[in-house]
Write a structure and sequence with these properties.
single chain; 212 residues; 8 helices; 4 strands; 43% helix
């Protein structure tokens, strides 16, 4: 497994580097469109929990207004007024995730792996759930290709734990293929039922970055 992780890290580094070079014109156009469409920076930065719970700053293209609570509920409707016009397009196409190629270069993320969540969520997880952080977080993962926004937080964790236990080149290829297919089809990325809990409010796993 150590050999596999070494090869995976090398492939991630090369792919992310090439991606940043090839996509640099597109990244520049997106950043300009965001700045012209609404006031504020083009890149949204937020602390997340990575491998073994280590904190790092995740990068994304900003898709919401700057006066939005960064820890509010995720949009459940495309008409959510917090989302900017260009933000709706970026979310639908997943282009808002592209700046995370820089996180991959830095070794904080991988192309494939569980999505990085907020630090306070990690603190609330059980030891069983924290096994999710035994691998580097990814731009896309098993939970994203098996329900994505329509899967609850708790079910996503279980799907990610399945990935941790079955991580392999074959599983990674399946995830990559399904991710490309989902992006091509423009499948829904909005949150359905975020948690099985319905009491709402407070600092609990029902809340996640609204700009994620």
């Amino acid at each position: 497994m150590r050999f596999y992780h070494g090869i995976k890290r090398a492939v991630d580094f090369i792919a992310a580097g090439l991606g940043l070079i090839v996509l640099s014109p597109l990244l520049g156009i997106i950043a300009l469109a965001i700045r012209l469409g609404s006031s504020g920076p083009a890149i949204f930065r937020q602390e997340r929990a990575g491998k073994d719970g280590r904190r790092f700053i995740l990068y994304k293209f900003r898709t919401m207004r700057t006066d939005t609570d960064p820890y509010g509920f995720s949009p459940k409707d495309e008409a959510d007024p917090r989302v900017t016009r260009i933000g709706r397009l970026l979310r639908k196409t997943s282009l808002d995730e592209l700046p995370q190629l820089a996180n991959i270069i830095k070794g904080e993320m991988a192309l494939i792996g569980p999505r990085p969540l907020l630090g306070w969520q990690y603190e609330q997880w059980t030891p069983h759930q924290r096994r999710r952080c035994q691998v580097r977080p990814g731009m896309t993962g098993w939970a994203q290709v098996n329900g994505r926004g329509m899967v609850t937080h708790e079910d996503k964790i279980e799907l990610d734990l399945w990935y941790v236990d079955h991580e392999s080149p074959w599983v990674d290829l399946q995830i990559l293929a399904k991710t490309l297919f989902s992006v091509f089809r423009g499948e829904n990325t909005l949150e359905g039922q975020y948690s099985r809990r319905t009491d709402g409010g407070g600092e609990n796993p029902e809340r996640i970055s609204s700009k994620k």
